[in-house]
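Pilot study result, target chain (248 residues):
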Amino acid sequence: MRPSENKVKTKWFSERLQREVNMARWGTFGQPVLMFPTAGGDCEEIERFLMVKALAPLIDAGRMKLYSCDSVAGQAMISKEGSPWHRQWVLNQFHQYIKHELVPAVRKDCGSDSIELFSTGASIGAFHAVAVLCRFPDLFAKAIAMSGTFDIRRFMSSEQFGDDYWVSSPLHFVPTLSGPHLDKLRTRYVLIPSGEGRAEDISESWAMARVLGRAGVPNRVDSWGRETPHDWMTWRDMLPRYLSQLIS
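Predicted structure:
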């Protein structure tokens, strides 16, 4: 069995999210990469949409271990779980779960209590990839945010937003950062590729890049042109290419 075919799925009850959560892993050695699903996806979405297959050469060569989790915050938004205030709370708690539960589980699986992760995702998954790197730059080293949707207020079905939202949205909290947190973040890197074809809106990527740039955070927007749609076939082309470049 090739490493990319060796899937390990684990689950536990998250006190922070007050629900059962799932994590899947493919591979046995290499750089840990956490891929967030799209809005309502689960930890196996990337397998069903053939992203694991696209990344198999990197996984089988021992260059990376691929991890994914359920999109708990996205599922709450799509299903309109509870009140808008509750959904904002879930968003913040989802990021806290990543920091305090998922990253320690990945590090244990990798046999290192200090290894740094890469984050990636597409659409709202790109939002989470940038958010966790910017919130926790001591845990994440690089982010690849594909076809990103970075202003997610419209998905909250609300005109009122509280601290749970503002501390979770990198468009809004990055300009407030200072001191050691910002110093560490400035040593990190965010790659923001996007198409400009069907259902794409590269202006969101440029808006995120401007916020990062003003804060002195290294980043780059890559346009894949007007023939490139907002779709898995785009992301299956993008991610192997960028990870091959970024994984030493």
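One observation from the pilot: The radius of gyration is 17 Å. A full batch analysis is planned for the follow-on phase.
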